[in-house]
């Protein structure tokens, strides 16, 4: 926008005030006495060093997460050394040519050191680097970007960052602009926290501290001008910096203490964008089911889609008598597809009583089904060794030869044509694990075990494998790995039936639990443990059934049988891990459930054999990687499916959004035409100077803006009266009104004291007169 300048004119008298006031744009205050002076702090080398140091600290906040996001570790330390030297070169005001020559040499030395350390001293790496760059140029010309070497990528990365840092440092030292970069750093760290799940809370607090110090350094002169300080006494700038640093230190310490108090609960939970979009689009989906009832707890047959909140159902399922409390196992499933579980081979064969193995204690169990819960499946507390009695709901006895069993899942049931059971009495043998034996079991697995129980979906996020590898990094045996993952899940995540959310169509169930919800019930914990074990090469399977139930009474006359009531709320899932020496051994990762028989508490055994306390402490300190560790191809694939689903199933919403954008664009165009927008920005704010300009100037500036929008901007060498005179109008009264408007503007802008008699009502009246002549 060009300045509006008064001019002495014989046609229209104008009196310039005695003090010569430099002309300025109509949207900014004119230069005033004292605005050109700066605080001594801004002219000192001490200030430049502090600003450069704070810039380096902000740059470090950008680089640290890069090491977490990369597939392989990035050495951020050497990179920061290069950037620190580049910042120092600009801080010492080294001439441009020499400065960039020094930066280029530093970057080349860094690339040579990182990629060819063995020959770095001899200098032979220089020729290798030149050959590599020439080869990469050929790849670039042929558009084979995937073949570009790491040397050239690193070189371009460092050059780009060096240019960016140089520009940012110049803006801070010369233009005193820093808030935008601090804000960009905060947005970057918050996005990593909310979108990708990275732990950047400490970095956010540090960035806020750096930003406050930068504002204190760069805004001292502006504060003086705002409050009318004429000068600053010697040494006050250093006191200002010291006080600012003390205040920022107190605020940062308070924030850090608050963050520590909130642990282990995360301050910011990662956002599941896919889940949010699914829930949002469901509001506009015409085919969305009505009611949206929450699923109830209980034993079901379909486990292909897990997740979401559960409503507790306390309906009784069966009453049982058992000589020892056990889990009531139903069946296992082996195939995980990222959403739930299925059994690939559910063939049932005639049951044959197995041979008792080991010297484990046998358990007698009787089950009486509730009248409303007849079932053809048997739920057992261990390996079925003997069947004493089977009764249908009509009281008809059945032979044990009618029973069918799946050798893969362990499911025991009646044929489909048989009547449902109402009562059965059996003898079972629970699995008694021997930690000493298991911890030394490093035998090979049979092919049929590895084929079925190491399966994982190809779309499993890399982050799930990464966390499993971190947890089991120092565990040498499969048993140690299983215990490590079991205790990590039970100690790190919380149990809840209401808080879990349903993963979106493009999300993996385990990844959603580990990195988004971080709370769930047995299905979340057991599925996560199976998937994590398989990702580190340990065969495991998912098992479901019922928890032991609620103790009702003890029959002292019948071999100490305990009566328990099992409800739908006791439906449960857990894990079985395969060991060549013992077969399938149960594990319980869900908090609040024991999973092991009372005479073999795993806590005591693992404390003595594996130093559980030290292990648990180390596990709790393992950093949880975020979803950003997934490969770019996985992310793009998920994004593509999400976009396609949106377009297919949510046409109405897309039409509404498109219509809203059109309306918004129309509003913006209307505001620009009326002069309320300039270059996409709101009406410029008129900054009051120390000369106390006339309060009507901001209002008249907006009216001038409308004229410029309609008739074009004012040339630089024209005054406002020349500008109005040069315009062509259909009505002579329009030009006269505009000339009068220009005279009033010049008078109140450059002689505010003597023009105080003008009021807004007069300006409005003149403007209305101009509008009437259009």
UniProtKB/TrEMBL annotation:
Protein name as annotated: Transglutaminase-like domain-containing protein
Lineage of source species: Bacteria, Bacillati, Bacillota, Bacilli, Bacillales
Coiled-coil ranges (or none): none
Keyword field contains Transmembrane helix: yes
InterPro entries: Bact_TGase-like, Papain-like_cys_pep_sf, TgpA_N, Transglutaminase-like
Occurrences of domain Transglutaminase-like (ranges): 514-591
Residue intervals passing through the bilayer: 49-70, 76-92, 104-127, 154-172, 179-197, 203-220, 240-259, 653-671
Sorted UniProt keywords: Membrane, Transmembrane, Transmembrane helix
Source species of the chain: Paenibacillus violae
